Amino acid sequence: TQLLEQSPQFLSIQEGENLTVYCNSSSVFSSLQWYRQEPGEGPVLLVTVVTGGEVKKLKRLTFQFGDARKDSSLHITAAQPGDTGLYLCAGRHYSNYQLIWGAGTKLIIKP
Amino acid sequence: NAGVTQTPKFQVLKTGQSMTLQCAQDMNHEYMSWYRQDPGMGLRLIHYSVGAGITDQGEVPNGYNVSRSTTEDFPLRLLSAAPSQTSVYFCASSYSGQDFSGANVLTFGAGSRLTVL
Predict the structure, then answer these.
(1) Which residues pair with B93 in a beta bridge?
(2) Which of A35, A106, B27, B76 is the most exposed place for a label (fewest CB within 10 A)?
(3) 3-class SS at B78?
């Protein structure tokens, strides 16, 4: 079974704090995507990372793909209540084109 | 531009009843898929299709049927609902199912919340 483990499962912090969410696997991915999902809606893509060691920034969000392409992290600087949501990572294997999904990190930013 | 449209948004069934969850996309995407989302388990793939007339099983296909007669539509059928099928169901599409570049982005519908009593 191919697994993609996300941690932490739940995080509740105050506005202005920094946080990091991790996505880890023993498998190598051709690419890895991060999605955010708000209540009552479907996931929406935030970013795709493709190259080992790649770093992408989206305003206060920084995404990194591990050098070995087995793990990824999402760092949020100065979190805001609008960042509240479920963050999902999804990896795509070379051997098939299906996405492997993490279980998600539920993030709550308190004003 | 509607994207991916799912109906109904909410449904309550009794055990043994059948129903169809509808999914339509207007982006001319080749690839369509159905997921179920349960607390703490992430998204699990039920069935998928890489084009009209082609369907295949995902991780959790038992109890569900699909068909793909047109590019636009990909309905999910529950033939005899069970309480274990209580979940939120998402339809998602992308331009291709065979793309390793990372540019292949899934567009999701808003979800259908199903409760089986």
Answers:
(1) B32, B107
(2) B27
(3) strand
Calculate the alpha carbon distances from A80 to A15, A23, A108 in Å. 5, 22, 9
Percentage with pLDDT > 90 across chain A: 83
pLDDT digits (tens, 9 = 90+) for B4-15: 999 999 999 999
Question: What residues does B49 pair with on adjacent strands?
Answer: B32
Q: Of A61, A57, A65, whose CA–CA distance to A87 is shortest?
A: A61
Q: Do A33 and B97 touch (CB under 8 A)?
A: no
Chain B contact for A95 (CB, 8 A cutoff): no
Of residues A70 and B105, which shows the higher confidence score?
A: A70
Listing DSSP states for A19-60 in one string gives EEEEEE-SS--SEEEEEEE-TTS--EEEEEE-STT-EEEETT
What local confidence, expressed as pLDDT, does residue B52 receive?
94
Which member of A6, A40, A50 has the closest CB to residue B110? A40
Chain B residues whose CB is inside 8 A of the A24 CB are: none
CB contact under 8 A, A97 and B41: no
Report the distance separating Cα B3 and Cα B56, nearest Å. 23
Nearest chain A Cα to B98, which residue?
A97
A59, B66 contact by CB (below 8 A): no
